[in-house]
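Field: COMPLEX_INPUT
Field: COMPONENT_COUNT = two
Field: RESIDUE_TOTAL = 493
Field: MODE = joint
Values follow.
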Amino acid sequence: MPVTVNLPSILARLAENARQVEARPAPSATVGDVVSEVVARYPELGPRLRDEQGQPYPFVTFYLNDDDIRFNGGFAAAVRDGDEVTIVPAIAGG
Amino acid sequence: MATTLGAEPNTVHDLPELTQEEYLRYGRHIILPDVGEAGQRRLKASRVLLIGAGGLGSPTAMYLAAAGVGTLGLVDFDVVDASNLQRQILHGTSTLGHRKVDSARDRLHDLNPNVHLETYDAPFSASNALEIARDYDVIVDGTDNFGTRYLTNDVSVLLGKPNVYGSIFRFEGQASVFATADGPCYRCLYPSPPPPGMVPSCAEGGVLGVLPGLIGTIQATETIKLLLGLGDTLAGRLLLVNTLDMSFRTVRLRRDPACPACGTRTITHLEEYTEYCGIPGTEATAAANAVAAGTGDITVRELAEKLARGDDFDLIDVREPYEWQIGRIPGARLIPLGEFEAAIPTLDPSREIVVQCRSGQRSGRAVAALQAAGFVYARNLVGGILAWSDEIDPTIPKY
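Field: COMPLEX_OUTPUT
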């Protein structure tokens, strides 16, 4: 069940510069499962995506098919075949 | 269609007249069916506040001035530095060292002398923000640090004025419109900022020079749409721009009922935002912030004297290898900040260690890490290699 994860360049450098990573979680998986799979492949991403309790940070937003997961169960939001997860950390440059 | 914000008088009759020169200047607007003479007069009656006259503020201010927005407010306390000119096209070589608001005034007046400019040569802070912003129709966030972004957001929500947001880093940018009547605010998107050091600033991480041009012109476009009630703005959407693959993606934003600013409205006044994140407002304040983060600091003159005396200490440069190639302080050893934590066990806590970087910000974090690891003789070089170039060895290029 492929799910595409879109990484901004600031995080891609921790994933061998891949700006898109394809995860293949089990059926009935969640966004959290997808994140775990990506972190297992690129461990340096772990502390940039999840806090010590394994939850999303308030300054890194996850979108499942362009919808903020915080309004849909957070990491417990269910993913389906072909879904896209887009990760958007806060940036402040101007 | 969005509600028109630009001018209180809602009848064309009440809007300011255009002069003959303005009819000619704004002719391409006036023949646009959705703008017309009434829209142009509405722009003339409008007031827009720009927070920051830097990378984002440059194109935004220039296009809004050219478009004939009647009053532009500019807030910036910085001076024009050579390192700004790669992207801050509001300023030029002839205005190096000038106050940014003065440089901007000259450029914008030349672009369109009809525009009334109000400049604020001061940091946008909790003590002045409400008073400055109160009389404007739209606020444009062109700041370069998290603290001022949260302040700008809270001011916008408290005053009920749209916040046209833009933010950039390296090759990517974000834009949206916050704090409209029904839309989300910046705190709905990011309830709190990252801790100090987790996200590098543009001064550290770099930024593609044309990127603020892209994002700033989007902010100018959204501002004009708000003022004229045109089209659908980015309220409720976040535009993500990646220049490397030139992708433009929009994700949906929702107002968070628990948001303390626009949801529960528990934020009823402005707090002090300078310590909100620890990421400095400008490159000029970087050194001061770094020093504040640690207890030990050393000036470039003191370091030069130590080197001349042959004192026994370690000098560690925590910049990146490509920066090291540009220039270095004699006797320094390179340990990039990303590798610094892993290298701490190889350092001797009984020795004096001076840490330096470009401006003093990254080395401040390295010194803080050393102090947390029990190093009591760690010192941060205030102002970094920029100060070294200014005061000790001008042959080292500044960048």
